[in-house]
Amino acid sequence: MLYLNEVFSHVAPKRRTVQDMAGELELTPQDVSVFRTVFGLREIAVVDEGGALELLDAVLARLVATTSIDLKQIKYIFHCHAAPCVCPSGAELLQPLKKKYGLEHATSIGLAQDQCATPLTALSLAEILLADEADDAKVLILTGEVGFTPKLRLISNTTIIGDASAACIVGKQGTRNAVLTVAQRKFEMADVQQAVGSIPVPATSYGDDLLQVVRDALDQASMRLDQLALIVIHNVNTISWKFFARNFPCPLELIYLDNIAKAGHCFTSDPFINYCDAVAAGRLKAGDHFMMVSVGTSSSFAAVILQH
Amino acid sequence: MSSGCVHIQAYCHQTFTERQPAPQTFSWVGEYYAGLLEPFGLTTDLSRLDDGMNNDFLSMGRSVMNALQQESSLEDVSLFLMAHQTPDTYFPFRSTTTRLCSEFNITAPAIGMTEQELTTPYVALAALLSAYRDGRKTGSGLLLALDQGTLPYVRPGYSDTTIDNALLIKVSGPSAPDGIAMNGRKVWIDPASRKANWISQAIYAYLDDQRIDLKDLHVVVDEQTPSDATTGLAVPISHADPRLMSVSALSTALEKSKQGCAHVLLVHVAKNEQLFLFSFSKLRTPMQEAA
């Protein structure tokens, strides 16, 4: 059994409206209107200065200041990112942060092939590696990257990318957030991936594929959707989640949509940011079952069922 | 990493020396690389792409998977790991694992491990060991390690002579009847002790545990391992070819095993002062055992 022992998040404090970003994203007034009214995106979190290093620094500072876990227990650090690379090959992004925060002993790797779903599929790898470690060993799952050019901020007709980071400590021992099942699927969407020069747009079957991976997760856990207290999502837009609610079906209130309008889709960080905010807002009680769901642009879908 | 071994049922290593057509480019490629490189003090030189070999991950992965499939079925794959240090030639977003899973009908979890501290292939090996030893997982696991050298910048700290290559290994639990037995251990290097001595001691302890006699041993080290770490060992030592990147030490170890070495020990010292040891022992058939 795997547990999310502690989760931390940091959302870049500066906000820009979709309208403010229209020029650099080459959005028409009609596009702006669709993003606002149909997709539910209003403000996007953006870094004022700096990049991925600063985002990761901020969330690690929060972790180190408040964690109850001995950092020596962290054996691996997974930096999960949506873009294939977040630093040049051969350069070191995490090394200065590991030194600053006393994490030099941990082995770090990057994970990226599932794009925004990567931190959820990473749970499978964490469980595998922890099986050979001491009972109190931990894996630190880090997220955090920036759209450093406008082309990395826009998925056409789908979403606008914001900047944030998150840190999630997972281990074999814990008292909360037991991971009951991790379902993941890679659907064949060759046409989706042929996009050259821009982030691929989700396939037309996106909605149905999302339903399928959620059903997979529920089946694996022998649960029904109405047994969940909350679905913690990736903030791609509201319309896709309305489609999900209508077609599964389930009440829209079951889905934590609050941050779509406030921050945009923050690459790999969304499920952890939404978890932190949902807990702070009292949306999860001890013992509640909940689901985390995310999707990568390569048609990688992941759904995780946990017990808070 | 500890206890039982896993079996490498098959492997395939290929180098790709033919120049391929350049991938389709786009207007903002310079802007992208500037954003990626400048925070690290590096500059973009797009002209380097003109001289590249252009071997993309999907083509290389497809090639070794097709080749390995001739020898061993991929039908029972229950975990697929991909490890690399360099990025793909394809840009900006394509998931090689998704495409390969689709093409080879693999429905198992597939995870891609990228550049950090150059330890990804060893973490991937450790994951395969952890997943399949002691029958924890059924079926077989794949590790695809690959790298390519067509980049619009000079990789900091590395020679500019990467050979495009890919290695695919297929492992299963210890019940498989043949292949190469692989085991391994990850050890913290005590910073208070002299590193080389400590590494030697850790190697001897591992060999004792595995009951591997020095007279049957061949050692493979990569370029990150301190040169004096293994000099005290009175055994043949091979230095992995750094031009092969992620694949270098593992392909060398497997080649030595194929050439008849009874036991091959792969030694890697990670940047975080962690020692990775992997041993590869040829499995003997019952007839060989009897002889």
UniProtKB/TrEMBL annotation, chain A:
UniProt superkingdom: Bacteria
Q: What keywords is this UniProt entry annotated with?
A: Acyltransferase, Transferase
Q: Does the keyword Iron-sulfur apply?
A: no
Q: Which residues form the Beta-ketoacyl-[acyl-carrier-protein] synthase III C-terminal domain?
A: 218-307
Keyword Transferase assigned: yes
Query: What is the protein named?
Result: 3-oxoacyl-[acyl-carrier-protein] synthase III C-terminal domain-containing protein
Please tell me the species this chain comes from. Uliginosibacterium silvisoli
UniProtKB/TrEMBL annotation, chain B:
Organism domain of life: Bacteria
Can you name this protein? Beta-ketoacyl-[acyl-carrier-protein] synthase III N-terminal domain-containing protein
Q: What is the lineage of its organism?
A: Bacteria, Pseudomonadati, Pseudomonadota, Betaproteobacteria, Rhodocyclales
